[in-house]
Amino acid sequence: MKFWKYHGLGNDFVLSEDLDGTLEATPARAARLLNRHTGIGGDGWLLVRQSQSCDVAMFLYNNDGSVAEMCGNGLRCFAKHVYDRGIVQKEVFTVETLAGVMTVAVTAKDGVAEAVTANIGSASLDRASIPMVGEGDCDQITMRALDRDFTVSACRMGVPHAVVFGRDFTDADVLKYGPVLETDPAFPQKANINFANILDDHTVEVRTWERGCGRTLACGTGSSATAVLCHRAGYTGDDVEIRLQEGNLRIQVTSDGVVMTGPAALAFTGETAL
């Protein structure tokens, strides 16, 4: 099988083309491919497929072999690939995902996509759609993990997200508390946990513990959820710079959806029998 290895600010993906629908794609194979010790390694496995309703379709497995409805960084890598390879021959196009239709626009130079802007839809704050057990809104509630209380808001941004508000979270905090919050009984489908250090009214540093992946260097839907919930809480405006370990994303919260702009990079290509 031929593959391409991409990353969006360090959030890395194996990508395969399955335009004829014959590729053997199973959770077990995804887990083998994405194993960093015995496989290619990656946070996710992206599949390029035909769509009956959009220009192209994206399917995604997480590192553990589970299916992901959406991934912002994965979407940017996917968009770069289908544009650079000529699978989609226009700069603005639609992508079918399990979370709905995403509209993407590539910024290209000499036929190569350098950045991708994507409208990934609006965040849902409804508990049933997140899902999150309990009643009332999900804004700035107190959740306890191990020995510490956190102020948390939640939404669905394609997938379930919780944002933990603070100013001095470290990677040690993410590794200690992330898996506990991810599997809290309040989240029946688990949740992605975003630790948000609010730097000022337009800048937030984010560290994410991803459901099905663990600690990742970047999370596009998590960055988007963070911007939405920080804006809703009054911490920031509607145009936010999200600072991640390997670079920044621009997130704009609009009445027509959340717009994410950032890079995507091809690392290498190869073939595997895995």
UniProtKB/TrEMBL annotation:
EC number: 5.1.1.7
Catalytic activity reported: (2S,6S)-2,6-diaminopimelate = meso-2,6-diaminopimelate
Pathway the protein acts in: Amino-acid biosynthesis; L-lysine biosynthesis via DAP pathway; DL-2,6-diaminopimelate from LL-2,6-diaminopimelate: step 1/1
UniProt keyword list: Amino-acid biosynthesis, Cytoplasm, Isomerase, Lysine biosynthesis
Cross-referenced InterPro entries: DAP_epimerase_AS (IPR018510), DAP_epimerase_DapF (IPR001653)
Subunit composition and interactions: Homodimer.
Name of this protein: Diaminopimelate epimerase
Upper classification of the organism: Bacteria, Bacillati, Bacillota, Clostridia, Eubacteriales
